[in-house]
């Protein structure tokens, strides 16, 4: 079997194009503020993509860069300011925050009406209890990717590997809401391959390069890979991407290439459909952030 590619780049572009008329219908551009603290390379590139997408859609965006040594009160002061500014409709605190900062306190401080990540406990409660509200961007994007590729969820066996607050937990709730039978696995799950092989829909969000392989994938499963990991050794690139000249060229140029949490050889061989890394889930996260920001602006008018 050769897996169908679930193309997140084109789905993300379609979602952003659909938002254009809603942006134009508003009396002023929706405003998105992003707080980025410290110098995490991953966060830098995610935030760059978010700011770029906001600009292309005609949103007002503001990047607030804070030093790695900031304190919890510093972050809270910035959030309070953004909560009060009328031209700001959406506030995003890029995670992870530096370790000395109380991240839970920061997420709690964001005005729930401006919480475009859906991370405020009030909005997480809305998600749990099926009430309207912003949904966390990556899980919402994954559901949108499934919908746009006409992949059924209702009544199917879904296995989510990873229990983070950002992806695993909210994704499991959305799958449950869509009537899947949901299993959540994590680092202490015994017999991980066996549990994963039950999955008609397999979601990998653990942050470990190529952890899931042919032992974990049921033939014909749909595999959604949320992982973004760097390969920095040539032998790993040759092993996971055999005969892939483009990958090797990228590695030669940049000294690294990205890989997900699923061995791409196993996904290509066994899955009926699979997301690439990059170009799978990532662009959906960005598109859903735009959607949440536009929706937040619409509600405020
Ligand atoms: N860090 C990794 N993913 C995300 C995300 O979707 N939102 C925020 N705020 N931080 C992240």
How would you describe the overall organization of this protein?
Helices cover 44% and strands 15% of the residues. The protein has twelve helices and eleven strands. The strands form three sheets. It has a six-stranded parallel sheet with strand order 1-11-8-7-5-6. The protein folds into two domains: 28-112, Rossmann fold, CATH 3.40.50; 137-281, NAD(P)-binding Rossmann-like Domain (Rossmann fold, 3-Layer(aba) Sandwich), CATH 3.40.50. It is globular. Residues 92-95, 117, 137-138, 166, 285 line the site of guanine (GUN).
Layout of helices and strands:
Layout: E1 4-5, H1 8-24, E2 31-37, H2 41-56, E3 60-66, H3 72-84, E4 90-93, H4 103-109, H5 121-128, H6 137-148, E5 157-161, H7 168-177, E6 181-185, H8 192-196, E7 201-204, E8 222-225, E9 229-231, H9 234-240, H10 245-254, E10 257-259, H11 264-270, E11 273-274, H12 282-300
Helix pairs in contact: 1-12, 2-12, 3-4, 6-7, 6-12
The structure holds guanine (GUN).
The site of guanine has 9 residues, from strand 4 and helix 6.
Quick structural overview:
The protein has 301 residues and is α/β, with parallel strands linked by helices. It has 2 domains: 28-112, Leucine Dehydrogenase, chain A, domain 1 (Rossmann fold, 3-Layer(aba) Sandwich), CATH 3.40.50.10860; 137-281, NAD(P)-binding Rossmann-like Domain (Rossmann fold, 3-Layer(aba) Sandwich). 44% of the residues lie in helices and 15% in strands.
